[in-house]
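Continued from yesterday's entry.
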Amino acid sequence: MVTQFNQSRVPVPTLGRLATYLRVLMDLDRAKVETVSSAEMERQTGINAAQFRKDLSYFGEFGKPGVGYTVLDLQDRITRILKIDRRQPVILVGAGNLGSALVGYPGFQENQMELVAVFDNNPAKVGSVIHNLTIQDFRNVKELNQQLNARIAILAVPAVGVQRVADELVQSGVKAILNFAPATLKVPEDVVVRNVSFMQELAVLSYHTSGRMLASDVVPPANKI
């Protein structure tokens, strides 16, 4: 029996944490662990046990008091919630250094994601092969995606022109975009965009490496006139 839930009321951070829980559950399964408690999940993930229970509560009832959670059952239910219990075709746009590295990422298959096509607009790259995938001309994305039926796309292109690329992807049927370009995309309400910014994350890490803020780091307030 599949529990029904309202997708619109599930916070996006909760979905991110579900992916974290799933990774831990997969590790526990490989280690032949049969049950796990919320306290152990906190130890494994660093996410508060109460938060773990709250995240699961959006999707129904899980676990048994005094027993905990069956690892295989919880793993199965989370994969169904995240819809990675089935094949998810993914297309990638941008066959530069980053895009080429992403094509070889082994984690796709572990999560039922199948990278089915790579696109680029550089004639020198079109027709080349990366990890058994032939780079396709981006001008053909609408036509090819009618056959591929990919609803997820990865953008590994420069910021210049990325909005036009996103528009073409939406018109080709894409409903979710993972964007590595340093640009904010404008898309219809029924299309989801997740931005990945290396420099933003590095800036946050840089801040944390400095320890306590020095007085010289604080900008003094402007003098009142």
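--- second protein ---
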Amino acid sequence: MMRHKTANGLSKNVRAEVVDLLAPRLADLIDLHLQLKQAHWTVRGPNFIANHELFDKLADEVEEFADEVAERIGQLGGQVDGTARATAKASTLKEYPSGIAGGREHIEALTRVISDAGAKMRKAIDSATKAGDADTADLFTGISRGLDKSLWFIESHAQAKD
């Protein structure tokens, strides 16, 4: 959805195509941020403080990724729609399970959702490259790398045999 004029050097068609790539990734990142906050707010158990702080740290990082994607949409002349209702309709991530509290349950749920978000981000890298927007492909690459790091942090909690 192109709404704003810009002197950006990419053609209007490329910009429109890329905005259409960015919008669902924005919804996914906003959703992922809120899922991480849900885990942060509800986790309990023996590793409470470590999990609580980790989930909050990762939520902050994902919120920054969402901000970068939203700003890129604006740079290309698109209109951002990041409201809760719009995000709920547009997110392609599975809904976070309600009623869980244990650290291991949250780790398993977050592993699935971060992995899914990362896979979709990698597909977006290829799509942005094919569209001819190296800058957006680079943005997606950085976010993909960040999500891989988040996944590593989360998975590392499940791999230890204490």
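The radius of gyration is 17 Å. The chain has a mean pLDDT of 95. Will compare against the first tomorrow.
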